[in-house]
Design a protein that fits this description.
It is built from four helices and 21 strands. It is mostly beta strands. 34% of the residues are buried.
């Protein structure tokens, strides 16, 4: 009997040794295999920071502005500089008809046949006088000259884009950006000595006391705004270059109804959604949402520009942040791959705020390593 037990033990020992050797080989293989996978990915550390929750948009200035029309055909003489600030009842432009001494006899056109100046006498430029406050224009009967004056104080602009009667602060239009752009006419600027027809626009007066901006952006971003919410608007280019963000208040929000099967989850982003949608300036832009923001301050140069690129700051948030490239979307959920000593795991997160570089998230701890090129893992089937 003892000899039989020895034989059984001698057979069992090689099996144990082979098992241990196999485990060691697998451990060695795994030890080399996992680092080869990790070496293909890029890591970043989640850390606390304060970020501005922003998204880019296209902006359109809405101003209080009044266009002044010449009641007669004639030669325009500009009495105020373009961009000048004038008081009420200040003469801005003078239109000299064909029977005034300002008309050039050797130049053809615009001489209406059978028109006779009232009075037919002689006079000087000083006889034109100031326009009345109510009419905005006065006529020098002795010389067939019409003087157009400002009814209210404001900034003089001789360029008319055709949107002055469409963009009204009291009732902003419910038009898409494409529709609004199509209604814009090439700017027509009247210059000193130009001949103008009867009924033609000569100049406009812009009131710098109030300024709104109509913004177009991704529906998911616009949908996070609400009427009465305080926001900040940054103007990256002219006008307003180098200025701090301008505070304002949301007065209108317009977002199209959600399409069946489409998810408008503001909390999730894929690697291509770093800015919360397709940013203005590229093809296939998602600019389906719009909002009107009443600005607290006047923007220098806003009287001379209509369309402008803007950045909307909807909130300022502090928390644990990860690079936006680390966030992927699946089924409307935002996910992050976290790398630990035990391996790589997937975490569902909620996005509290984001800017073009970082997102404040819940679901990842400060100091954890996150993978910022998650597509590498997905291609490897992980």
């Amino acid at each position: 009997m003892p000899s039989g037990r020895r034989r059984s033990a001698s057979r069992f020992i090689p099996v144990v040794l082979l098992t241990v050797a196999g485990a060691m080989l697998w451990s060695i293989y795994s030890g080399f295999h996992i680092p080869s996978t990790i070496s293909d990915v890029q890591l970043a550390t989640a850390e606390r920071r304060v970020i501005e929750d922003t998204f880019p948009a296209k902006g359109v200035f809405i101003r209080d502005e009044e266009v002044y029309i010449s009641p007669v055909a004639g030669v325009a003489e500009l009495l105020a500089g373009n961009g000048a600030m004038v008081r009420a009842r200040t003469p801005v432009a003078r239109v000299a008809g064909p029977y005034s001494r300002y008309w050039q006899e050797d130049e053809p056109g615009l001489r209406p046949g059978g028109v006779r100046a009232e009075g037919g006498g002689t006079g000087s430029a000083g006889d034109a006088g100031e326009p009345s406050q109510g009419a905005g224009a006065s006529r020098d009967a002795s010389q067939d000259v019409v003087v157009l004056g400002a009814r209210s104080p404001g900034i003089v602009r001789y360029s008319i884009d055709g949107l002055e009667s469409i963009l009204c602060r009291e009732s902003p239009p419910n038009l898409t950006l494409e529709e609004l752009t199509s209604l814009k006419k090439p700017p027509e600027r009247v210059k000193n000595g130009d001949r103008v027809a009867a009924g033609a626009a000569v100049f406009k007066i812009v009131d710098p006391a109030h300024l709104d901006v109509l913004v177009y952006g991704p529906a998911g971003d616009i949908g996070r705004l609400s009427v009465g919410k305080r926001v900040w608007v940054r103007f990256p280019g002219d006008p307003g270059e180098g200025l701090d963000p301008v505070p304002g208040r949301i007065v209108r929000v317009s977002v199209p109804p959600r399409r069946p099967g489409k998810s408008r989850d503001a909390g999730g982003m894929g690697p291509g959604d770093a800015q919360g949608g397709k940013a203005p300036g590229g093809g296939g832009r998602d600019l389906t949402g719009s909002a009107v923001i009443e600005l607290d301050e006047w923007i220098h140069g806003a009287d001379g520009q209509r369309f402008v690129d803007v950045c909307i700051i909807s909130d300022i948030v502090e928390g644990v942040s990860v690079p936006v490239e680390a966030i992927v979307k699946r089924g409307g959920k935002a996910l992050v791959y976290v790398s630990r000593r035990s391996g790589i795991s997937m975490r569902e997160v909620s996005v509290r705020a984001r800017n073009p570089r970082y997102a404040i998230v819940k679901g990842v701890e400060d100091g954890q390593a996150v993978i910022i090129n998650p597509l590498v893992l997905e291609r490897q089937g992980m």
